[in-house]
Design a protein that fits this description.
Layout (H helix, E strand, L loop, with lengths): L13 H29 L5 E3 L14 E5 L18 E4 L13 E11 L2 E7 L11 E2 L3 E9 L4 H9 L2 H40 L7
Antiparallel strand pairs: 1-2, 2-7, 3-4, 3-7, 4-5, 5-6
């Protein structure tokens, strides 16, 4: 006869597995949802950028995380290189001049003009001696800087430059999955222990039959 205290491992219920998958999905896709909300509310496909150079110092520093909002080209504020009172825009410079960076550029508007109903912007980094090599057409403008958080973007810069960004994301995701699964298993084990203890107590309390 088998001991009533013997543990019998039961499979994890499908409901628990579904809950675990749902939690992982929420954790993974939650950031994408927040990013989508920012895209809609700020009216731009790229609402957040990280500054990767010091060309706008001391106004904006390398590693700053910036919030970007879409704005009609005609409403973007003009300025001069001396007064530095023009809007700071984020734009895609690829194809505008030789050797343009792949990442969006964050520079100040120092002049603007209209040709055949198309706006063009002359831009310059506050810390640079010369303006950018070519004017920026409105189709290349991602948006205008509306705020930011100092230096928080250094985490992204460090991870990308060190090549650790993707491995870290994979590691964090794996740890999250393992943590959720282990938590479910522990809860099931505690439930089994509780049921086993109750059954053992019940058997011990049963009166002995007289022969």
């Amino acid at each position: 006869m088998k001991d009533t205290s013997e543990k019998v491992k039961k499979p994890i219920p499908h409901k628990k597995i579904i809950i675990a998958i749902a939690l992982i999905a929420v954790a993974f896709f939650g950031s994408f949802f927040v990013y989508f909300i920012l895209q809609v509310s700020l009216n731009t496909e790229t609402p957040i950028v990280v500054v990767i150079s010091g060309s706008m110092e001391p106004t904006i520093h390398k590693g700053d995380l910036l919030f970007v909002a879409g704005k009609d080209a005609k409403d973007i504020r003009n300025g001069t290189a001396e007064d530095k009172n023009g809007d700071i825009i984020v734009f895609d410079a690829r194809g505008l001049w030789a050797g343009a960076p792949q990442e969006p550029i964050v520079h100040r508007v120092i002049d603007k003009y209209n040709i055949s109903d198309v706006w063009f912007f002359r831009t310059k980094g506050d810390a640079n001696y010369y303006p950018d090599a070519a004017p920026v057409p409105e189709s290349n403008v991602i948006g205008v800087v509306v705020g930011g958080i100092p230096y928080i973007g250094w985490v992204k810069i460090f991870l990308e430059e060190s090549g650790m960004l993707i491995p870290l994301l994979v590691l964090v995701s794996a740890l999250l999955v393992i943590s959720i699964i282990m938590d479910i298993i522990k809860k099931e084990d505690k439930k089994e222990d509780k049921n086993t203890t109750k059954a053992k107590t019940k058997n011990n309390n049963q009166p002995l039959k007289e022969e």
